[in-house]
Amino acid sequence: MKIAMVASEVVPFAKTGGLADVTGALPLALEYCGHEVIVIMPSYKCITEAKLKITRIAKDVTTSFIGKNIKVFFIENKDYFNRDGLYGDKNGDYPDNLERFAYFCLRSLDLLKEINFCADILHLHDWQASLVAGYLKNLYSQKSFYNRMKCLLTLHNIGYQGVFAKEEFTKLGLDWELFSIDGFEFYNRVNLLKGGIVFTDFINTVSPTYANEIQTKELGFGLEGLLKERKNVLSGILNGVDYSVWDPNADRFITQNFSFANLKDKALNKEDLQKICNLPVDKNIPILGMVSRLAQQKGFDIFTDGLDELCKMNVQLVILGDGDVKYQELLKSAAEKYPKVISLNLKFDDPLAHKIYAGSDIFLMPSQYEPCGLGQLISLRYGTIPLVFKTGGLADTICRNNGFVFSRYTKEELLKLIIKATQVFNNKKKWLALINNAMECNFSWKVSADKYIQLYAKAKKK
User: Fold this and answer.
1) Per-residue model confidence as pLDDT tens digits over 37-79
2) How far apart are the first and last CA of the chain?
3) Rg of the chain taking only CA atoms, in angstroms
4) Phi and psi at residue 226, in whole multiples of 5°?
5) pTM (2 decimals)?
6) 194-208 core/surface letters (b: 16 or more CB in 10 A; e: else)
């Protein structure tokens, strides 16, 4: 099949979150399976300034490669994309985001014809690319080159929808009739993601449980009714992990490589983590690691509420991340109060993230909702046992055989489970069995890619 991946961010070129990891890794897995893939994304300032091998093919299009032979096309527009941020700055979202990504979607469709790439599938990601489906079914419906193309829209986090004032609709170049309950209208505003859901052929999200959750009032963010209507073409496919990056047996960032066969070397990483984090070096104290955005969605409301009680247990906490000022201040205060318990690292630090996955005993991920989650999948590979709230992809990947799960979202339930986890940690036979089960889990992109290929085949036949 010929697949065009259209996304607003892609590793290694531009990234703000997990979306970029998916759009960077999935094409490689699809190429490995024998499919022809291209990727289209905006040409941001960070790309033009990076020392990457980029070739110009048109006055407003450049290209590079990932994998063996996957072309990545960059859509240029200095007015729209030559900015420090991808979607906004310290003042919030850019006010012209509708125009920016409408331009990107239109130019992406035109580019396909210019390079003569008659795609079987247009794989669109989140609201920034969802307009491609609307344009394809309306503005491009009479153009023969595009007749066979089908769209799959992946929802990475339905909380982000691309909602704008009604007056902005004219900038899309679409007929006003499409500003309706059966189109882009959403409580008298423009909703780009809603339009994408209406006009795409198939929809998927990044875990089976999340596909069900977004059809509920609690987690549908106002689109649950529409998603229920389209449930026959809605599915969930778990994201994968790039095991070429996240492999304790070959990880260049950790102090000692290890596998289950030489698990004693994991202990050397724990000792290293305690040293660099200025924590007492003691193999008998369980380290609870967190690599996360500091936000309520990630569970930091119940986590910080229970932090005093947690710090009085015989544990150590290593936290890496950035985010809401509220949680930064609460964590700073706790770290000052408990310097021998908490190592707080308010930044993005990739090498330290690898060390936390390798050196921790337990990986905390108490997210209130989590479409898929990557941290729990990585921690499994490193024999670091996940402790999670039962939601989304966390519910689909973690169970009592490979981790710890609580199902009532309260501080009390979180603390109760941490106590249980530390008790199991002290039972070396049980802990070793957990580590074995964790490290045997396979969440490679090859597994996920096979499921996407099946979905593409369904869409192609539609």
Assistant:
1) 999 999 999 887 777 889 999 999 999 999 999 999 999 999 9
2) 15
3) 23
4) -65, -40
5) 0.92
6) bbbbbbbbbbbbbbb
Q: Classify domain 2-240+446-461 by CATH number.
A: 3.40.50.2000
Place of tokens 């955005």: 293
Cα(160)–Cα(371) distance, rounded to whole angstroms? 12
Q: Tell me the DSSP string of 435-459.
A: HHHHHH---BHHHHHHHHHHHHHHH
Using alpha carbons, select from 37, 30, 76, 86 the residue that is nearest to residue 54: 76
* pLDDT of 16 higher than 90: no
Which amino acid does the sequence have at 353? Answer: A
Q: Are 223 and 213 in contact (CB under 8 A)?
A: no
**Sequence-ordered list of residues with C-beta below 8 angstroms from that of 101, at least 6 positions apart, any chain:** 8, 127, 128, 129, 131, 162, 192
Q: Quote the CA–CA distance of 52 and 42 in Å, as a whole number.
A: 15
Cβ count near 78 (within 10 Å): 11
* Structure tokens, 328: 């930064």
Q: Are 360 and 337 in contact (CB under 8 A)?
A: no
- The segment(s) of the chain belonging to CATH 3.40.50.2000 are 2-240+446-461, 260-442
> In terms of Cα–Cα distance, which of 419, 442, 291 is closest to 352?
291
DSSP sequence for 131-194? HHHHHHHTTTTT-GGGTT-EEEEEES-TT---EEEGGGGGGGT--GGGSSTTTTEETTEEEHHH
| Helix, coil or strand: residue 19 | helix
pLDDT of residue 332: 97
Tokens of 49: 């300034």
Tokens standing for 35? 């499919």
Cα–Cα distance, 375 to 378 (Å, whole number): 5
At 333, list the tokens. 């205060």
Answer whether residue 90 shows pLDDT above 90: no
Render pLDDT for 187-218 as a digit per residue (tens, 0 to 9): 999 999 999 999 999 999 999 999 999 999 99
Distance CA 257, CA 263 (A): 10
The amino acid occupying position 73 is F
Within a 10 A sphere around the Cβ of 59, how many other Cβ atoms? 6
CATH class of segment(s) 260-442:
alpha beta
- The number of CA neighbours under 13 Å toward the Cβ of 256 is 15
Q: Name the residue type at position 120.
A: D
Give me 119's structure tokens. Answer: 């795609």
The single-letter DSSP state of residue 10 is B
Scanning the structure block, which residue is given the tokens 């153009």?
143
Whose CA is closest to 23, among 278, 206, 224?
206
DSSP 84-136: SSSSEETTEE-TTHHHHHHHHHHHHHHHHHHTT---SEEEEEHHHHHHHHHHH
